[in-house]
């Protein structure tokens, strides 16, 4: 069976059955990863926006190292927008793709100043106006900085949604739509954190450790992939 067909097969089941499974997945993963939260450090929506731009193709740990100093130096969108480009590039060089990221940060901050009176907007449609900000970044920002019930579909959320049979889609926007219909509003942000943490530790992209996975009895992937399970619960 092709990967797409396997994903479709795993995605069978009623919405009610999937909603029940989502709640059970959350219950177990909350116990497995107590207190899980966003790994990026920030204290304001602007800081989170900058951190999310820097986090592309970079580890959260590295971003946190870099932003520890930067957030003391640049405190407003005006300060970021007015920074010397060459200096800023040097300051963020270790996060990779530093030229593109410096440009994105400054264009974003300029738009925040000119269109949103210097405040990072809350609404999804407004955030999407910011240069380089897509739905993933906008939803992670809304969920974590403003407490909105938002699902930010990154690579881990997308992979686990597919393996868990919650979405047969590959387009992140469609995965977001599927998950929005299955995850209760009050759990949406935490659900993403749980899947990201699980995706980094156990449900790895290339070799998911299904035998050691605490939610393997709720996941159709091992059966579909014919991976033998040793129950750990
Ligand atoms: S059982 Fe395997 S595929 Fe399913 S969530 Fe666990 S590690 Fe991932």
Question: Can you tell me about this structure?
Answer:
- The protein contains 13 helices and no strands.
- By secondary structure, it is mainly alpha-helical.
- It folds into 2 domains: 3-37 and 151-224, Orthogonal Bundle (Endonuclease Iii, domain 2), CATH 1.10.1670.10; 45-119, Orthogonal Bundle (Endonuclease III, domain 1), CATH 1.10.340.30.
- Helix 6 (85-92) packs across helix 7 (98-115) and helix 10 (155-163) crosses helix 12 (188-201).
- It is elongated, with a radius of gyration of 19 Å.
- The protein starts with a helix and ends in a 9-residue tail after the last helix.
- The structure holds iron/sulfur cluster.
- Residues 160, 163-164, 202-203, 208-210, 213, 215-216, 219, 221-222 line the site of iron/sulfur cluster.
Topology:
Elements: H1 3-10, H2 15-32, H3 45-54, H4 60-73, H5 77-82, H6 85-92, H7 98-115, H8 124-127, H9 135-145, H10 155-163, H11 172-180, H12 188-201, H13 221-224
Helix pairs in contact: 3-9, 6-7, 10-12
The structure holds iron/sulfur cluster.
Iron/sulfur cluster binds next to α10 and α13.
């Amino acid at each position: 069976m092709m990967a797409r067909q396997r994903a479709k097969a795993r995605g069978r089941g009623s919405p009610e059955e999937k909603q029940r499974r989502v709640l059970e997945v959350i219950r177990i993963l909350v116990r497995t990863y107590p207190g899980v939260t966003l790994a990026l450090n920030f204290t304001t929506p602007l800081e989170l926006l900058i951190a999310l731009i820097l986090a592309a193709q970079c580890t959260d740990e590295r971003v946190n190292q870099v932003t520890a100093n930067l957030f003391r130096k640049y405190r407003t969108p005006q300060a970021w927008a007015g920074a010397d480009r060459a200096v800023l590039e040097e300051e963020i060089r270790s996060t990779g793709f530093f030229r593109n990221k410096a440009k994105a940060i400054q264009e974003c901050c300029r738009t925040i100043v000119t269109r949103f009176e210097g405040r990072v907007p809350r609404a999804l449609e407004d955030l999407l106006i910011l240069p380089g900000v897509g739905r993933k970044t906008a939803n992670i920002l809304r969920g974590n900085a403003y407490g909105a019930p938002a699902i930010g579909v990154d690579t881990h959320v997308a992979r686990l949604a597919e393996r868990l049979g919650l979405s047969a889609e590959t387009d992140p926007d469609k995965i977001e739509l599927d998950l929005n219909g299955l995850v209760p509003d009050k759990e949406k942000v935490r659900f993403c954190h749980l899947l990201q943490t699980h995706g980094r530790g156990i449900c790895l992209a290339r070799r998911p450790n299904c035998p050691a996975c605490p939610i393997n009895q709720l996941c159709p992937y091992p059966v579909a992939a014919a991976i033998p399970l040793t129950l750990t619960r």
